[in-house]
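Case study: N-acetyltransferase.
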Amino acid sequence: MNIRVANELDYPALRKIYLESRRKSFHWADIEAMTLDDFDKHTEGEHIFLVEENNQILGFASLYLPDNFIHNLFVHPDFSGKGAGGLLLQASIEKMEKPIRLKCVSKNHAATKFYESKGWKKVVEEGTPHEKYWVMEYN
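Here is what the predicted structure looks like once written out:
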């Protein structure tokens, strides 16, 4: 697997990964409200890494560098559990200064478990009763 910075030519594939991943994993959300355009809105002004293998994009991470914040990290459902997420997380950590933070939806137990297995710690649970998330930190 190879990690590289994404470019505009990668965006059609990244839009699909973002949409398909959220529709499959976000069982608590209104999946019908999700669109391909969400990727562009939710990553505007961010540094984007992608992971690929055999010229196929498997996933991406988008970083808001001024705050050392991982905004998004998604792997296509077909490639989940094969190491792509860990590579994206490591590349993100190497790009930013510690401490690094991210937010993980409280109901996304698989993601929370993934981050904790990589050394991330839960700091505080925030949000509204219907949209709780963990602020997580890596030092």
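For the exam, be able to explain this: The chain has one domain: 2-138.
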